[in-house]
Amino acid sequence: MSAGPAVQRLSRFSLTTADAERLAAFYKGVFGCRRLGTEHVSGVAFETLMGVKGGALRITLSLGKQVIELLQFDHPGKPYPDNGSASDLIFQHFAIVVRDMAEAYRRLSAMEGWTAISRGGPQRLPASSGGVTAFKFRDPERHPLEFLSFPKEATPAHWRKGQSDEVCLGIDHSAISVSDTARSVSFYENLGFQMSSRSLNRGTEQENLDDIAGAKVEVTALGPRWPDPHLELLCYRAIPRSGKLERANADIATTRLIFEASNCAVPRDSVDSDGHHLIVEGQAVR
User: How far apart are CA 72 and CA 38, in angstroms?
Assistant: First the structure.
């Protein structure tokens, strides 16, 4: 029996959208994304992988060294649910590292269509929660996003190295809300991830960041072989939340993380125990 796929790196972030051109314009205006390509993808292999009929318009963007693809399916799925909380299992965001939080927030505030998750603007978390400054919000289609700024003395080396003059430098991680940390860790370790850090975040700043009274969240960082960008598991303690939602790839709430892996002959769409999608494909030739 051959070994299963072993994840090596996170290569792309894939979002479902109702209007790819509109969302691409928003991401360009707020984050400084650059368009890499526009195409219509279709065919049996795409339909089988995504579990859909028909194809999709795909706009590919770059943000720093990371790649974001926006998929507008020919046959749209469900819109993003209203009134969701950061603790709900449907929640998944990616965190964008910013060089200047004040300027990033100013640029966002000048755009229309987004909504805040965090209350009171960007929040500086205590040292026990990493000491970062963060702000969570939703794009015009309600996908959750986060601005993230590291304290100068604790900025990871890869974000200091060759830092550009751009306000938004790239994507540090994607975070997903989970119901059971141990179960989720087991699922991702079986794909080749390794735990790199763990903390319990709480306090007024965390409550403001998530807009959740009494927020206490276990944050577990997992990395593939090349750990950046990485994955974070968010498990909220004693907080009411909606249960697992069955999400199709054409639903707006479905964000896919696309990983390159060894021992993977055919791309496959996997779903974890809380309904989060990830696509595992063979390693690209370098």
Answer: 11
CATH 3.10.180.10 fits 6-78+248-282, yes or no: yes
Distance between CA atoms of residues 233 and 189, nearest Å? 13
What's domain 92-236's superfamily in CATH? 2,3-Dihydroxybiphenyl 1,2-Dioxygenase, domain 1 (3.10.180.10)
> How does pLDDT run across 147-158, given as a tens digit for each residue?
999 988 888 878
Tell me, letter by letter, the H, E, C secondary structure of 148-204.
EECCHHHCCHHHHCCCCCCCEEEEEEEEEECCCHHHHHHHHHCCCCEEEEEEEEECH
Q: What angle do CA 254, 156, 93 make, to 5 degrees?
A: 15
How far apart, in whole angstroms, are the C-alpha atoms of residue 11 and residue 66? Answer: 7
- pLDDT tens-place string over residues 116-158: 999 999 999 998 888 899 999 999 999 999 999 998 888 887 8
DSSP 217-233: EEEEEEE-SS-SSEEEE
Measured distance CA(119)–CA(133) in Å, rounded = 13
